[in-house]
Design goal:
Elements lengths: L1 H6 L2 H18 L1 H6 L1 H28 L4 H33 L18 H8 L3 H6 L8 H5 L2 H18 L4 H21 L3 H16 L8 H25 L4 H7 L1 H10 L6 H11 L3 H14 L2 H17 L6 H14 L9 H13 L11 H29 L5 H8 L8 H4 L11
Subcellular location: Cell inner membrane
Membrane topology: Multi-pass membrane protein
Pfam family, one: SDF
Length: about 450
């Protein structure tokens, strides 16, 4: 009985699933590789409901908003925040890579690099342009946004729909209520699907360990350690300072989102945790409109983990190939990285493709050099995803506080564990909480 009590939390079950997956992948590599469909299936199940969840929550938030000028102000604040924070992430990655020098001493001959292994990534990177990225925000049809499963087109049509409902006034009230009921339905579906999270984590980790193996990581441990350290510094120092401004403890926020963070670690992607993130941010005291706009948009424009990875990987490759980067070249890398990191929304292996696009634009480091990172990239993907996930949570809290749309008393209650709404399962049966303060 006592054991079942400790096994009940979702994050514990996901950790157990991930550990078992690592063991299976290590001792039975072929079997681990065969477990890939379990991880892929879980991610697909959650991605299936991401688009309708985003659509309904944005539409409801905007439809209930009386001041449309405030909506435009929120959008401008969000864009400025994303640009400042992602630039900071790029700069921190660059500085730490120079201090630790993870690629020093490898002395790899550039002429020995083969382009075959990275041809697919290079081709994808070359096809990504900023204009095309913005054009992709506009779906071919209203339904196409849901069919393709890309976040930004869904956000685009949701904003249009919400604005239309807001302008229609009382005539749209009945339709808004229906959309709210549909939103509740999809959130219940998410709660059902989360029971499969431990199986998904097992499959993903078994495949990753079985495919690449732990031994292949030894030469890259310094790079991995430097990257994970940099992500931790960014989360607890940079994001910590931002969340402190909003009156929220970064440590308590991370603990509050522990279930979702473990899911992101197991899946290697932040998208499966997006529906639960939206729900938890609302429960934290963030306004529904702020949550609906900032968090989903941040998945394309505020991927802090990818930004850190970009500059660290570029410096690592330059050190490994003994290529000196001038100050001007490093500034160019920062500028280009600020665009390539945002242009990879919806692209498979987005972080790796963003790196290829950056190298292709700079031209100083041969593009085939990214082949040196293929074996270790998947193990760094988890840190990229978690950093970006936490970054978007902090972004939402910051914008909500900036706009005066954060209930700080409610946030303190939730983060202190004194609010029954912190339990996602129990929340469905609890009555609406009172507005008491501490």
């Amino acid at each position: 009985m006592a054991i079942s009590k400790y096994l009940k939390p979702l994050y514990v079950q996901v950790i157990i699933g991930a550990v078992l997956g690592i063991l299976v992948g290590h001792f039975f590599p072929d079997l681990g590789i065969d477990m890939k469909p379990l991880g892929d299936g879980f991610i697909k199940l959650l991605k299936m409901v991401v688009a309708p969840v985003i659509f309904t929550i944005i539409v409801i938030g905007i439809a209930r908003m009386s001041d449309m000028k405030a909506l435009g102000r929120v959008g401008l604040t969000t864009v400025l925040y994303f640009e400042i924070v992602t630039t900071a992430a790029l700069f921190i990655g660059l500085v730490v890579a120079h201090i630790i020098e993870p690629g020093a001493g490898m002395n790899i001959d550039p002429s020995s690099l083969k382009a075959d292994a990275v041809a697919g990534f290079a081709k994808t990177a070359e096809s990504q342009h900023l204009v095309d990225f913005f054009l992709k925000i506009i779906p071919d049809t209203f339904v196409a946004a849901f069919v393709n499963g890309e976040i930004l087109p869904v956000v685009f049509i949701a904003v249009l729909t919400g604005c239309a409902l807001a302008r229609a006034g009382r005539a749209s009230e009945q339709l808004t209520v229906v959309i709210e009921q549909v939103s509740d339905l999809f959130f219940k579906m998410v709660s059902f699907l989360m029971y499969l999270a431990p199986i998904g984590a097992f499959g993903a980790m078994a495949f990753t360990t079985g495919k690449f193996g732990a031994a292949s990581l030894i030469p890259y441990l310094k790079l991995m350690a430097a990257f994970y350290l940099t992500c931790a510094i960014f989360i607890f120092v940079v994001l910590g300072a931002i969340s402190r401004y909003a009156g929220v403890s970064i440590w308590r926020l991370v603990v509050y989102l522990k279930d979702e963070i473990v899911i992101v670690l197991g899946a290697g992607s932040a998208e499966p945790a997006l529906p639960r993130l939206l729900q938890k941010l609302e429960r934290l005291g963030c306004d529904k409109t702020i949550v609906g706009l900032v968090a989903p948009t941040g998945y394309a424009f505020n991927i802090d983990g990818v930004c850190i990875y970009l500059t660290m990987a570029v410096v690592f490759l330059s050190q490994a190939l003994n290529i000196e980067l001038s100050l001007t070249q490093q500034i160019v890398i920062l500028l280009i990285g600020s665009f390539t990191s945002k242009g990879m929304s919806g692209v498979p292996g987005g972080g790796f493709v963003a790196l290829a696009a950056t190298l292709a634009s700079v031209g100083t480091i041969p593009l085939p050099a990214i082949g040196l990172l293929i074996g270790v990239d998947r193990f760094m993907g988890e840190a990229r995803a978690v950093t970006s996930f936490i970054g978007n949570a902090v972004a939402t809290v910051f914008v909500a506080q900036w706009e005066g749309k954060l209930d700080r008393a409610q946030a303190r209650l939730v983060l202190a564990g004194k609010d029954a709404g912190t339990d996602m399962a129990a929340a469905e049966s609890n009555e609406t909480l009172s507005s008491r303060t501490i």
